[in-house]
Fold this sequence. Notes:
By secondary structure, this protein is an alpha/beta fold. It is built from three helices and 26 strands. The strands form six sheets. Strands 9, 12, 15, 18, 20, 22, 23, 25 and 26 form a nine-stranded parallel beta sheet that branches. Strands 2-1-3-6 form a four-stranded antiparallel beta sheet, with helices on one face. The chain is elongated, with a radius of gyration of 32 Å.
Amino acid sequence: MKFVQRSFSECESGSSAIIFGLGAVAFVGMAALSVDAGMLYYNKARLQAAAEAAALAAAKKLPNQTDAQAQGLSLASLNVPTGFGTVTQSSDVQTGTFDATQKSFVATATNPNAVKVSAHRTASNGNAVGLSFATMFGKTSSDVSATAIALHGFPGTCLYALDPSAASALDIKGSSIVTIQNCGVQVDSSNSQALNVTNNATLTAKSICVVGGASGSTVPAPTTGCPSKSDPLSYLPAPAPSTCSGVSSGPFFPGTYCGNLTVSNTTVNAGIYYIQGGHLSFKGTVSGSGVMFYLDKNSYFDVTSSANISVSGPTSGTYKGISFFQARDTPSSVTDTITGGGAIS
């Protein structure tokens, strides 16, 4: 008896089979879960693409909210396989306002500037994603959703008049020619005369969007009734002034210029020109690349006497792409003007 017991206890040939069997179950379970995880990832990616396409298309229809919702529903449906079912309901297409600084969306029907679209495959929506192998663990389906927000905006808006109510918030007159190359104009004033282009002046841009009314010669014709936009560069700090430069005539180099300054028939060197408490006047032909003019709250500029101004902003750094930056606390009594056949581009 003792011999038999010892022989049995020393026989280990079956232990590997037991271990292999347990390992196989774990391996199969992990493989099964991987297959289902891949399926869920695929569904998430397709829903995200559909939501983004729908939001972008819907935002282009603003301020017409009815058209925006219809476009959102249509594009969401077109961008998913038929087996997904109805991924977006009417309540999933919302118009509202988006604060770029806070990165927050608030649903509203009043002056919306954005559209939020959600796409779902969920049990409550009747189209949850069916699982293949997770059923062995008692889970037969899973919910997947995606959301996208798109802002309404004309392509490459780069000139903003942000006063919410002023008459002639953007006023171009006196045979002046203003050309905004490859981007748009946004006038936030709700005044019936928010944009005025008069006395043979012209304004040419990629697009022109005005909250209130507009008059005068523009290319293209302005779109009125647009939603207002918050300052897109509200996060951008104002540059700090340095010691006042004593230079009152060219050549001009970056720095702080106190009091009045006339820039005439010259090429300005690249950098930031801080205008402090003065009148910046452009005359003749003025050009420059990588240039930004900053005007404090007591400063203003004018382009007159057939001046032709062609400047481009810095190509890198904090102020990349900005040619003119007016202090945010500038009072309404301080105005910039383009008159007398002046041109800026």
